[in-house]
Amino acid sequence: MNAAAANPDPQDHYAVFRIRDFRLYLSGRLIAVLGQQMLTVAVFWELYERTGSALALGFVGLSEMIAMVLLTLPAGHLADNYNRKRIILGALAVSSCASLGLALISWFHADVRWIYACLCTAAASRTFLWPASSAFLTSLVPRELFSRAVTWNSGTFQLASVAGPALGGALIALLKIYSPDHPAAFIYVFAMVTALTCFTSVCFVRATHVVAQREDMTLKSLAAGFKFVFSTRVILGIITLDMFAVLLGGATALLPVFAKEILHAGPGGLGLLQSALPVGAFSCALFLAHRPPMEKAGRALLWSVVAFGLATIGFGLSQWFWVSFAMLFICGAVDNVSVVVRHTLVQLLTPDEKRGRVSSVNALFIGTSNELGGFESGTVAYLCGKFIGNTAAMGAMISVVTGGIGTILVVGAVAWFWPEIRKYGRLDGTPPA
């Protein structure tokens, strides 16, 4: 590790960028996530163009969730028992092959069932990529700079989440003019190139992961991540808090209803509303990156989730577009505080030999809560709307407002049941008192 890593200046907001390996990792990740976000837009557009079925869109999430649920525990085991850099490279190679497969399917108009096969393959590669890359990040920067690395890493993802869909949609519209039969195929090829670019960038990273003692893949080994999470109260508490906040407080699944029925904003307004969350998160990441490490990280986490619940309630009650946009912006900003605190503590409080498995458990809890949160929001909105007279708008408002209230109640329960969280101090690698 170079001099900037060996002697980090805690007052230097850009110290992590003086570390060559981190620069390579972050730039590669930015490019790869940008391509993945563009691919997602293209997949949804092509499926609906070819099938005209909303159910066909629903199968996208299902195919990805199946891969995640089945492979999360093996992925965590591999991340702890094999070279993490090689796992990252392997996952990126598989992801690029899946993108190439999508391009060929699109170009030759093959059966759409092959699209789901490629999506499942891509989701499997991401399932192995997540715990390996999350744990590998700790090898790139010293402990004192880890929270800053997480902040910039999160900001990079949010930046790609804003730019990717917008760029993907614009390219599809442009390509339809010059190649009306194959616009999505070019997007898939671009996604393949971005994955290969990230692959090349990671190849030049010098840091490596050395396994101290390899374990066989047994039920005991696979369950080690769960055992550690449930035995470490701070980690269990913050994962539980985030899981229920996402499950109850997520309003994104109902944005089309709000845009059309309540705010009368149309497709353009829907696009702006969808961008509000990542724009808020990216803005918060920039702010946190230029601040000293949090002195009271536990309280910051709890108050950020309270703010998330309040902003969710405000969005549910709003009748004005820009107020709704502002509420979603706040949701994204405070959620990024939660992401930075949770990811930093999960990695720093976990021994290196268990980081992959604990990261996979974290990904499983948060990933499934995202999917179930959308289902929960839609179900509550449907039932409430039907009960009060088949009013979709009122059902959506009730679903979002009650979800925000539930999120605040969860914060109170977590703060009471896990007092260690509200007592946790500096977010710079200093152990809790």
List strands and helices in order, with pairings:
Elements: H1 3-6, H2 20-51, H3 54-81, H4 84-108, H5 113-136, H6 146-178, H7 183-203, H8 219-222, H9 224-231, H10 233-249, H11 255-262, H12 266-289, H13 297-317, H14 321-348, H15 355-387, H16 392-417, H17 419-423
How is this structure best described in words?
Helix 6 packs antiparallel against helix 7 (183-203) and helix 12 (266-289) packs across helix 14. The protein contains 17 helices and no strands. It has 2 domains: 12-203, Growth Hormone, Chain: A, CATH 1.20.1250.20; 221-428, Growth Hormone, Chain: A. 79% of the residues lie in helices and 0% in strands. The protein is globular, with a radius of gyration of 21 Å. It has 433 residues and is an all-alpha fold.
Quick overview:
By secondary structure, this protein is an all-alpha fold.
Shape, per Cα inertia axes: globular
Which structural category fits the helices and strands?
mainly alpha
Question: Mind describing the biggest β-sheet?
Answer: none
Order of helices and strands: HHHHHHHHHHHHHHHHH
Question: Can you identify the CATH class of the largest domain?
Answer: Mainly Alpha
CATH structural fold name of the largest domain: Growth Hormone, Chain: A
- Average pLDDT number: 83
